[in-house]
Amino acid sequence: MAALFDVGQCKIRPLFYFVRLYMSQYFEIHPDNPQQRLIKQAVEIINQGGVIVYPTDSSYALGCQIGDKDALIRMRRIRQVDDKHNLTLVCRDLSEIATYAKIENADYRLLKSLTPGPYTFILAGTSEVPRRIMHPKRRHIGLRVMDHPIVNALLAELGQPLMSCTLIMPGEELPVTDAEDIRSQLEKQVDLIIDGGPCGIEPTTVIRLTEGSPQILRHGKGKDHGIQE
Fold this sequence. Notes:
By secondary structure, this protein is of the alpha/beta class. The chain has six helices and twelve strands.
């Protein structure tokens, strides 16, 4: 973090703390056989407070270390959303979801049948979830387990969930699908762009598990949930 300088009774940060003067790094990572050297470098960037763009099983997304306040602010600024916009914790597996969410037995069976896959589950967060990333009134959090080799490799190296949101640029309805296009728009706003090849534009299916029976909040790529509406 940049040093503070005294000016009278005030402490100010130098201008370069506020203005990003460098370009993001750009890694081409194989979508089926991720290069471990690049995965390690990507996780180092995350652990140092970086914001990354990475491919998922539905679309490209923004990601950062769980609970990193500054990185969270940057992600919300890129998306131009407020603290009521649901963020997602991307977990390695179902057991990790149980650390961060309160799961009833019936919900557990549904989660087990649909993970990994293109679903986002809205659940009540546990005390392990930083309050700043939950919905400010409902204390809910989105959780995912993805079916993507690059994501799996990142999470294995990171050793904890990745805080994430879909990369949809302000004013757009669909996510950007090409990493080079993302680079042209965000190379001065993020620390790393992972090019894992083209991604889709269909979002995840969002399922709320906080109101008794499961409810579909958004139809998306996940079709095999068997939930009656």
